[in-house]
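Lab intake sheet, docking and co-folding queue.

SAMPLE TYPE: protein with bound small molecule
LIGAND NAME: 6-O-phosphono-alpha-D-glucopyranose
LIGAND FORMAT: SMILES
REQUESTED OUTPUT: full 3D complex as structure tokens
PRIORITY: normal
SUBMITTED BY: R.K., bench team

The fields below were copied directly from the construct record.
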Amino acid sequence: MTERELWERYQRHLCVVPSVGLTLDISRMNFGADFLDGMRSRMDAAFQAMDALEKGAIANPDEKRRVGHYWLRAPELAPEAGLKTAITDMQAQVAAFAKDVHAGKVKPARAAKFTQVLIVGIGGSALGPQLVADALGSGRDAMQVHFLDNTDPDGMDRVLNGLGEQLAETLAVVISKSGGTKETRNGMLEAEAAWKQRGLDFGAHAVAVTGDGSELDAYAKGHKWLRTFPMWDWVGGRTSVMSAVGLLPAWLQGLDVDGFLAGAKDMDAATRVHDVAANPAALLALMWFHAGGGKGQKDMVILPYKDRLMLMSKYLQQLVMESLGKELSLDGQVVNQGIAVYGNKGSTDQHAYVQQLREGVNNFFVTFVEVLKDRDGKSLAVEGENTSGDYLLGFLLGTRRALFEKGRESMTLTVPDVSARTVGALVALYERAVGLYASLVNINAYHQPGVEAGKKAAGRVLELQGKLLSKLKAAKAEARSADQLAQDIGAAEEVETVFKLLQHLSANGDHGVKRTGGARPAEARFQSA
Ligand SMILES: O=P(O)(O)OC[C@H]1O[C@H](O)[C@H](O)[C@@H](O)[C@@H]1O
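RESULT FIELD (auto-filled):
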């Protein structure tokens, strides 16, 4: 195709969303002239499924749940008055609470005000708040936000020690929809201990966001925490950033929450239309289908040329992969669907993995995210009249061209700036695209049955550890091999897990297990010190 023909193709397929100033360019995807027409009936079915979902149908049949994240920014569209009130009440509660915190009406015992927020959560209870905080935050925010999003002891030490004396003015926000996630429970207990160590009452510094009646809910009430805010079964964790999960942290940080919700609402309006050419979510879903043959054969590389959007790929990893990575179709057939997502930011990635994108295995498509506004205020001319921002665009366009020359496909999303409105719109765009794509490939996007297997297996590992420790204590100073100990606890078949447990126990002082003997597994001996 000549440059002129490409320009024509760019204009013909450019999807423009004037309400948020966003455009989606699909001209560098190599779909044929009849692709969009050929997908029409499938797409119509996807639109109908989405319409039914928004009206309150059971869109998550396995869990028999409704899927209500679109109502979070348009409560008037909720199918029942009770749902609408639940949303508007939550919005009013989180806003009022944040206002009281900022005003020092809700205050810690030993400081005039809360100045820091420590969010404890994982997966959908962390990724949205992390994206929003990083995209929109600054040193001038009403409060600074920190995260515990893992059960890594050193990771937690780093954050809690970093806060140090500031724990006295830190508000802990513990977020878990289910209220039973172990990593979050552990983070909460470690935070509680850190407060205690400084003679502070954790409950007077803590609030929870969780489902009514959950373990966390009971703990928060039992320990007289400041407040609990609701989370509902009709909002999925990975689409919960516009529930109290994301809104409470955003309000506390002092971000433009109204703009965030309005951007999403405007994007919802634009992506609700059944006209494919005008609907960027439909086009995204169709391009994913085109690129991967409806089987996820190509990976989605998310490349925002903006530092503030660096967490977008991490956020989308959960949204896309947990939603689309499914073994079974809605009819119960084995389909092993999914699309792998990775990325970081441009132009940084041009100095890392873009080499492979241009010349290596062609198993991906890129989504560039272009942000028109370079910065607040004027820019320095770094070379001739060129600014750093001019370079950033130059590198984006250069890479787009270099990839296309080699038959590697890309799309480009262009947004005016990184504002609350834009971030809300991008979240809403991908939420809808994921839902539509799931319909195109006939899977349930709203459950995550595969996640349970790892959790169950971890439970068994910890059960084995308990038995092992009792045995080691009973055997006192007698050094035994992993094989012997596995037999001792009636788990001969699980000797590899037993060895891994012993290796970890003996590397840490917590349980008083000592390792002697050789470096190889069969030579190692373990005993209670
Ligand atoms: O919010 P929570 O109930 O603690 O869940 C946190 C996360 O963990 C689970 O394992 C799910 O796979 C995620 O979808 C969820 O967001």
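REVIEWER NOTE: The chain is about 45% helix and 15% strand.
SIGN-OFF: pending second check by T.M.
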